Amino acid sequence: MNKFLLIILIFYLNASFAQQSSAFETGEWFKFEMSYSGFFKAGEATLSVKEELLNKKPVYHVTGKGWTTGAIKWFFKVKDRYESYFDKQKLIPYKFIRDIDEGGHTKNLEMTFDQVNHKATVYDKKHNTNLVYDTKPNVQDMVSTFYYLRNKLDITKIKPGNEIQVDMFFDEENYGFKLRYLGEETIDTNFGTVETLKFRPYVMAGRVFKEEESLTLWVSKDKNRVPLRVKADLAVGSLRADLTEFKGLKHPFKILVNN
Questions:
Q1: Cα 35 to Cα 32: distance, rounded to the nearest angstrom
Q2: Distance between CA atoms of residues 233 and 208, nearest Å
Q3: Any idea what the Cα angle at residue 144 is, between residues 25 and 93, rounded to 5°?
């Protein structure tokens, strides 16, 4: 897993667990800034929600973009784009796009999901290949998972230490994504002091992350479940991402003390 995959984790780990109504709506937009080892600005990312028709089905079309900034881009330039088209009611994906350039390492994949027959067709535009894979029922992609969790999981039914798992398909394989709920914590953010829910996603230890529990995520405790901060211990250094701007929230954003 690469460094810029970290910011995408924010998009789908924003567990907004159990609401009477949807936690998001068309027009929602987030912007994040990332810093490396607490000193150097590393990059920015955005996430936006639109509403479209895909094969005559009403879907949410979510676009996530990430790119390096500052001095780091001269050493390791990143430009990533992720798109997910998922059912407005069932919150299951029908189409997913991953178009990345990370220090010259490029991928351009387009996946279509047959949620009835549990298949994923992966079209690799770079190598002009088209392969079909078996998937789990109601499988998620790495972006749609974020929105699925926001509406389907019930935070009132889990306790600190409990684990949550979602079946996800990423690139060319099924992935059993897990995260552990750590409890509540009040933190200082760019917007003020906010009550949050704290999680620890499990990642693949190795080239990028030090160990499976290298990530920590904080999301707002209000009905929006806004992703506010993520920290990661990397194989070399550390990475932190903070929400700096947002608009189009469906519910009021609760701040205990304003900056």
A1: 10
A2: 9
A3: 105
- Residue 122: CB atoms within 10 Å: 18
d(CA 36, CA 232): 10
- Scanning the structure block, which residue is given the tokens 């080239």? 207
For 210, the token pair is 């030090």
- DSSP 3-state of 203: coil
Q: How far is CA 188 from CA 193, 196, 199, 243, in A?
A: 4, 10, 17, 12
- Give the global pTM: 0.86
Separation CA 170–CA 142 (nearest Å): 7
216 within 8 A of 200, measured Cβ to Cβ: yes
Q: Are 236 and 171 in contact (CB under 8 A)?
A: no
Instruction: Compute CA distances 164 → 114, 160, 200, 236, whole Å.
Output: 25, 11, 10, 28
The values of phi and psi at residue 30, to 5°, are: -125, 150
String of b and e for 166-181 (b: at least 16 CB within 10 Å)?
Answer: bebbbeeeebebebbb
Structure tokens, 47: 């996430």
Crossing angle for the helix pair 5-13 and 144-152, nearest 10 degrees?
Answer: 20
The Cα–Cα gap between 27 and 50 comes to: 6
* pLDDT tens digits along 117-176: 999 999 999 999 999 999 999 999 999 988 888 787 677 888 999 998 899 998 888 988
pLDDT tens-digit readout, 245-257: 999 999 999 998 8
Residue 117: CB atoms within 10 A of its CB come to 9
Number of H helices, E strands in the chain: 2, 15
